């Protein structure tokens, strides 16, 4: 039985591309967050993360799809969130994202065709052009949306990563089982 989900109906080309993905790598600011940076009274950086996105990443890991972060920024909240979610590969402070992408592929033994990347701004274009499946969030820069194979209906920090996760799970034939597991308690 098909369950309601955030996953879109997939055309054959997108389904085929997504079915081969074994890793989802994400930019953080503007993808996993809404891009807003808060500063505390002592100058510490604070960020807000969407719980739905976090569960989506955990579901991917449970289904055998690995997760990674490639971010130009480096901060304690980013590392804490990555640790909380069990994200397997983290590349912080990476202004040369294509180089970080190449290092990630070498480390995992995957090809670009087996890896997806999600971005929102111009710094992400170099990786989006290399990824087997390129995601852009709804509020991404127009050039990023144009480079993507799929643009989410949801904005960064507002469930866009969960939408990507459910799309990948659907393409792998795992989404209905995941939802059924939760529905049965």
From TrEMBL:
Single biological process term from Gene Ontology: lipopolysaccharide biosynthetic process
GO molecular function per UniProt: 3-deoxy-manno-octulosonate-8-phosphatase activity; metal ion binding; N-acylneuraminate cytidylyltransferase activity
Pfam families found in the cross-reference section: Hydrolase_3
Entry EC number(s): 3.1.3.45
Record-linked InterPro entries: CMP-NeuNAc_synthase (IPR050793), HAD-like_sf (IPR036412), HAD-SF_hydro_IIIA (IPR006549), HAD_sf (IPR023214), KdsC_fam (IPR010023)
Binding site for substrate: 29, 58, 73, 81, 97
Gene3D superfamilies: HAD superfamily/HAD-like
Magnesium is among the record's keywords: yes
Reaction(s) the record says it catalyses: 3-deoxy-alpha-D-manno-2-octulosonate-8-phosphate + H2O = 3-deoxy-alpha-D-manno-oct-2-ulosonate + phosphate
UniProt keywords, alphabetically: Hydrolase, Lipopolysaccharide biosynthesis, Magnesium, Metal-binding
Family: Belongs to the KdsC family.
Subunit field text: Homotetramer.
Protein name per its UniProtKB record: 3-deoxy-D-manno-octulosonate 8-phosphate phosphatase KdsC
UniProt organism field: Aquisalimonas asiatica
């Amino acid at each position: 039985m098909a369950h309601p989900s955030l996953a879109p109906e997939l055309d054959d080309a997108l389904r085929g591309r997504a079915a081969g993905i074994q890793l989802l790598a994400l930019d953080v600011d503007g993808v996993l967050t809404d891009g807003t940076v808060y500063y505390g009274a002592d100058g510490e950086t604070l960020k807000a993360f969407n719980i739905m996105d976090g569960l989506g990443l955990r579901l991917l890991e449970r289904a055998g799809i690995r997760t990674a972060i490639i971010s130009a920024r480096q901060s304690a909240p980013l590392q804490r969130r990555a640790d909380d979610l069990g994200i397997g590969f983290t590349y912080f402070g990476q202004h040369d994202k294509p180089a970080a992408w190449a290092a990630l592929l070498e480390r995992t033994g995957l090809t670009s065709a087996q890896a997806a990347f999600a971005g929102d701004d111009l710094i992400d274009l170099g990786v989006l052009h290399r990824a087997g499946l390129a995601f852009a969030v709804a509020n991404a820069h127009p050039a990023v949306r144009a480079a993507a194979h799929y643009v989410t209906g949801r904005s960064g920090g507002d469930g866009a990563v969960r939408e990507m996760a459910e799309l990948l799970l659907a393409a792998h034939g795992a989404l209905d089982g995941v939802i059924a597991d939760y529905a049965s308690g």
